[in-house]
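Case study.
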Amino acid sequence: MIAWSGRKKALMILAFIGPTLLGIIVFNIYPITYNSIISLTNRNQFHPNPDCSLKVINLIEPSCWPMFQESSGVSKPYSWQDPFVKNYSTLLGQLLSKVGSFALVQFMICFVPLIAAQQVNKYLDRQLTRPISGMVIWLLGLLITMIAFWFIGNKAIKTLQENSDFFVVVFRTILFVILTIPINYIVGLILALVLNTEYIKGRTFFRVAMIIPWAASTMFIIISLIWQFFFRDVGVINQVLSVFGINGPAWLQQPGLAFGVILLVNLWFSFPFCFTIILGGLQAIPADQYEAAEMDGATYSQQLTNITLPLLRPTVIPAIILSAIGAGGFQMFGTVWAITAGGPSRGAGVPGATEMVMIYAYKQVFQYNAYAKAGAFAVIVFIFLFIMTLYSLRITRITKGAYE
Amino acid sequence: MSRRPKTLVLIFQYGFLLFMTFFSLYPLWFVILASGRSGQRLFTLKLVDMLIPTSFTFENYLTLLSGDKYPFTSWMRNSFMVAAITTIACMLIATSAAFAFSRFRFYGRSAGLILLLAIQAFPGVLSLVPVAQLLSAFGLYANLFGLVLAYVVGSLVFTTWLLKGYFDTIPIEIEEAAMIDGCGPIQSFFLIGLPMAKPALAVTALLAFMGGWGEYVFASVLIPAPDAKRTLMVGMYSLANTPSIPWGLFAAGAVMTIIPVMIVYLYFQRYLIGGLTLGGVKG
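After joint prediction, the assembly is written out as follows.
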């Protein structure tokens, strides 16, 4: 019965991971394949049912399988899209034309200064003396990037967003991520710095209080509904404002304000996680580093920029990437769904002001029945997330090596 | 860092801490207050009533639990059942897979682990339709067991990774010693692996339970009707989206949904952070 090696080992391994494998194939790989194939058809509200005479569709569609055949409806069946990749080209809009690709190149060029700044910093790190501090170079790079955006990037984004819901939604989601991640982590960092000191009284109480939103965050739908109540037209915030004689705005009806509310609620959900991660990182920094710095007469801000932040990097960067592509960042769904449901509306057929990637996909499937289009959308998003996941694993491995 | 800072800095620090405490606690405190108010209004016109309870009744709780207006108790039972079965099934399946990934060396092991994680990147919202079609083909659509099946697989990858990370930290020497004495993989799994991984098992079970308890999207699509068959989250969402919203009842329901789970979660918090970092960061 011993099967650590040899012929029986393979059987043993299969017995151990078989159920997991089966589950993954049925509930993960099958949906991905299904989506990719459907994305090449014209399935929408006018063609909801499969055409079982097509071989591939016959294979993939459960209602085509012999044992379930009678359940299929009577309306017009869907079949291959004509031309084959039409869903993708509609989604990507002008990207596939000359103007679009030119705009994409322009958009990419805007980020060149940031990459240059990183390379310059890398080069300077290897030199014995540093003529300029790294922060200045980063700020310079950021400044040039912003100027480039002002002149080229803005126009490029507008060109890409023309006739393409995809780019509207994706750029909005990216904007959300680049706003929400720094906000969450900076709040978490300040909290962790304050609570890592010894002179603050009642640290245990504060730490528990800061973790409570995290404990509640798995029931995000209910909490989001409570937050929605705070920001209703006659909600708590406006009620409090009216006590002071201020007429509060309609928070969830104005695009900018609704976006801000989403950022705030996401901060509530996410900052405990950031705080905990950063606090763990802070406590792993050896105290003698600070003692040595103090001996040399370093001020608090010097200690912060030269010891604390660099030593926090290996803990924080993997966490940042994970939360950027996770449910609190790029794949944000529940909070937005409960608070604004993608609104406020900006007109019929146009994505609403807080409609992010996942909300858009959900609406395409369940409200407009545009399943093929949503499938194409899913495939593009999946490729992006797949690459990002592999990248985050790589980063984790690199930083882990640097840490040990 | 141990120096005492200036008083002004100290005031700012305490001010920030108090502000953040208020920010993180007030929404929950507000719901508790509102659940004790009778009638439809969740807020009052008086500022004092928004901060401290001037009167508190359990009327809303009793109305909900009696189940006259809304099938709250059956929502709760459904949710509990779904979460509990998900947890048990997930533990059974994921522990063995994690053990295999941690202890055996076989072709495609590390590639398989990474592929698991990358496949998970497919947006769940979009795998809903194929999953729903598959479940309806097997007669499990609008059935709690179909939902459990979807949940189990949904949390498999995360659980497997977490447990695999923990199994990796258990020294293999114990098993090698047992191996020399003639212990096979199955015995080693049940007699050495599982007992030593108890803390990680507790954490994983808790996370799987919370995941099943709080999930909304799958539950809303896979259990369309009737009202009494829904889970808690879907029920509460529909309660908050009725034309004249019974806010008092909603608040009472929210308190009953959130607070018990939160207390358990806070109790396990320290194991949780340890388990998570063991599996994910250091793994």
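Observations recorded in class. Chain B touches chain A through 93 residues (CB under 8 Å). Chain B has a mean pLDDT of 80. We will return to this complex in the next lecture.
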